[in-house]
Design brief:
Layout: H1 6-15, H2 22-32, E1 36-39, H3 45-52, E2 57-61, H4 64-76, E3 81-85, E4 98-103, H5 112-126, E5 127-138, E6 155-159, E7 162-173, E8 177-187, E9 193-203, H6 207-216, E10 220-227, E11 236-242
Parallel strand pairs: 1-2, 1-4, 2-3, 4-5
Antiparallel strand pairs: 5-11, 6-7, 7-8, 8-9, 10-11
Length: 243
């Protein structure tokens, strides 16, 4: 494989090792027994694992570079995965009948209100009758304060002899969103080091709001699920809707 673009490496560093949600996705995929649409698939954290266990998965992401890596990894592992570049806020794949449309890792909290509405309309169009739409939302987006002395541990990964480290340093309230601030550091094999700042804003949106928006899109609300917090990650509420 050619050298990865740096933003793809950071995606892997900050996302690929999270696995607290995988048991739920496997449970839902096994119960659904049909094709799955993974929205915001990135480099394939969920897609490739489900495909490895025999599920048919279509991976959707707006970033062609991360999907190219996903496709290379799928081919290298002998897994049949379709990767589609598209916008979660309103894609038309030209097919329907997905047993599950899933949006892991707070993907929907990156879309804004209009984007969420577009996503839910698109999910409704693509999911099979009685199929499932599952949406992960980050819990406990409180900003850092004096009581939180210890920062979360950094996410680290070695790539081509260099150590990439991403350290969360703050959560800042922006009213309708929360900004997650990180310092990204690269320590190269020759001893040189560089650092940069990164900010990711997640919409403040509740389970009840997503459920109401789902109803407005013509989806039925089901009881939600909870993914417990870990030492490195906040907990997750998974909104469950049915076509």
């Amino acid at each position: 494989m050619n050298a990865l673009p740096e933003h793809v490496i950071w995606h892997d560093v900050e996302c690929s090792r999270y696995d607290a949600d995988m048991a739920l996705w496997h449970e839902l995929a096994q119960a659904a027994g049909g094709p799955i649409l993974d929205v915001g698939a990135g480099t394939g954290r969920v897609t490739l694992d489900l495909a490895r266990h025999g599920h048919e998965v279509v991976a959707l992401d707006y970033d062609a570079a991360v999907l190219a890596v996903l496709a290379q990894r799928a081919e290298g592992g002998g897994r049949a995965v379709e990767a589609v570049v598209g916008d979660a806020a309103g894609v038309d794949l030209g097919r329907e009948g997905f047993a599950i449309v899933m949006a892991p890792m707070q993907t929907v909290q990156l879309l804004g209100r209009d984007g969420r509405h577009g996503f839910l309309q698109s999910a409704r169009a693509h999911v099979a009758p009685r199929g499932l739409v599952a949406i992960a939302l980050a819990d406990a987006l409180e900003t850092f304060d004096a009581e939180h002395v210890l920062l979360p541990l950094p996410d680290t990964m070695f790539v081509d002899g260099a150590m990439y480290s991403s350290q969360p340093v703050g959560l800042r309230d922006r009213g309708d969103s929360v900004a997650i601030e990180r310092i990204r550091t690269i320590l190269r094999a020759d001893g040189t080091r560089s650092a940069s700042e990164d900010v990711l804003a997640l919409d403040r949106v509740t389970r009840e709001e997503i459920e109401a928006e789902g109803r407005a899109a013509g989806l039925e609300v089901l009881p939600g699920r909870i993914i417990d917090a870990t030492e490195e990650h906040v907990g997750t509420t998974v909104v469950m809707l049915r076509g």
